[in-house]
Amino acid sequence: MRAIVLSAPGPVENLEIRELPLPDVGPGQVRIRVEAFGINRSELHLRLGYAEGAKLPVVPGIEAVGVVDAAPDGDLEPGQQVAALMGGMGRAFDGGYAEYTVVPRGQVIPFRSGLSWATLGSIPETLQTAYGSVTIGLDLRAGQTLLIRGGTSALGYATAALARDLGATVLATTRQPGRLAELAAHGVDHPILDDGAVAGRVREITGDGVDAALELVGTPTLPDTLAATRVHGTVCFAGMLSNQWTVPDFYPIGYLPSGVRLTSYSGDADALPPAVLQGFLNRVAAGTLSLGPVSVYPFDRIRDAHRDIELNRISGKGVVVVR
């Protein structure tokens, strides 16, 4: 099979397409014939050397969609459509950047859909994080206001869709003026141009600040996001588009506004129930939910995909179609 291998951290040239043996599959595992996989920020972090516990060389990829090729346990039939995500994929063991991948059964979610593989490839990890951020990290409710810091990311668009569907009012930021219209077109009630300090604008719109905020940019904007949130509101840290995720010399009393709660979210495959995935796919197919823009790349252009994401050239999700 063909696979994309990362042997050492570094530039996109370190992603090499190689011929590898078809991986063996044993009890408790599933071998998947990969049809598409999403490109995620964590894979950029892996390539740049920011991933703890990664075993190199490795086939990257924390998610993939395709069909079951072999499943010794017998509960999944060959040809069944499946998504695989998280659980050490692409770091502790070879992941989705390949024509075939072998993963633990617990990381596999079956589904049925007539959507294109390019569309399907954009959904699993993004939906898992958006759904978990909304339900666990923020406990968002109908009628509340939500600020998404980093709104034109794949996770930003997905969270906006879920929040609007729930009945929340959505504010979302972008650093690029040309993307404000994209946010509005994808259901954001109040697109905001991010100059690094948006708390004042957010409070002009909401009065006392938002009920909830999802921080996807990282620690550089976190203090301003906290300042945009009302007393007893919640900020959930779930992304690091800036590639900065630590706060030096953290002093809670000086850092956190009084009464504003700071949480985080990071989930696994079991945080995305099959019924939630299937229901979301059905809604996308029916045209009642949108994930935002998807940029599609062939397998041979993996370096272009990584380069575009690293340089913030695309809005939404990057997906590689394997065949």
UniProtKB/TrEMBL annotation:
Annotated Enoyl reductase (ER) domain residues: 10-320
Keywords recorded for this protein, A-Z: NADP, Oxidoreductase
Superkingdom of origin: Bacteria
Cited SUPFAM superfamilies: GroES-like, NAD(P)-binding Rossmann-fold domains
InterPro entries: ADH-like_C, ADH-like_N, ER, GroES-like_sf, NAD(P)-bd_dom_sf
Protein name: Zinc-binding dehydrogenase
Lineage: Bacteria, Bacillati, Actinomycetota, Actinomycetes, Micromonosporales
